[in-house]
Amino acid sequence: MTRRRITLRQLETFAEVARCMSFSVAAEKLHLTQPAVSIQIKHIAEAIGLPVFEQTGREIALTAAGQELLATVRDLDDAWNRFESAIADLKGFKRGKLRVALVTTAKHFLPRMLGQFYQRYPDIEIELEIANREKIVERIRNNQDDLYVMSLPPRELDVVSYPFLENEFVVLAPETHWAVGQRLQLGDLAAEPFLLREPGSGTRHVIDDYLRMSGLELKVRLSLSSNEAIRDLVASGMGLTVLSRQALAEKAEQLGLVELDVVDFPLRRTWSVVHLRSKLLSLPAKAFLGELLKSGEEQR
Ligand code: PGA
Questions:
Q1: From 108, 130, 140, 201, mutation site for ligand 1 pocket: most ligand atoms within 8 A of C-beta
Q2: Which long-range contacts (CB under 8 A, 24 or more apart) does 153-158 make?
Q3: Tell me: the pLDDT tens digits for 147-165?
């Protein structure tokens, strides 16, 4: 019964406030006044019988009821997207929205694939998010996107994953480094400073897992979230690193970086396309998933 008393418009306003976590910023984005936004949120709270936001000092946060409502709004949004693309399909063309989120390293190769997809389906609107693995896992948990590209699908969530491409992690050094050209164990480099991706990244997960398994420790001089910055700093002689080969693009030679010959390396993982098992994929999402799997096969 409350459903009829809450309008889609009010739900859109609620979702915008939840996204910005601010009544005034949301009002500005929606071209409304702040009191108009507050009234809509108040109306929702009255219809539900519970507040959806709570105020702590100057900050607002979602209440438990607000979190439930936000998850429901996302489901409604999904259903609407599927409806739009189904109608577009009935009309004989592919239209709709595709929301893809990538881990940082995938940005070195995936946008090219997305570009090809865009050329084939120019009427599909694409929303792309890039963040490290930890944040992508959070986005999966909140059902924020259609598809995710990562190499370590979260075990703690009920997801389906489709492996489509190899992902190899290599040890890199500047070309003048003493270890270049030698066959080594990673332990031989224990005294060297390392520049690694930040905790929470998929890359760091892979390295930390390997270190834990082999009982080794590395001297981490710097942790940072940018593959490009790590590449440049290693090239300038600040230390060594372990990165996905894809993060180098064509830059390795240009920067004077050399892959070291280390036992057990490259560490081999696989890029996967991931979605929540409960997610009913829209036509654009199905089409993009199909393209990625096909391009993976072509590269094998
Ligand atoms: P990252 O993820 O960019 O967060 O390090 C890489 C990966 O999943 O392989």
A1: 201
A2: 153/272, 153/274, 157/276, 158/276, 158/277, 158/278
A3: 999 999 999 999 999 999 9
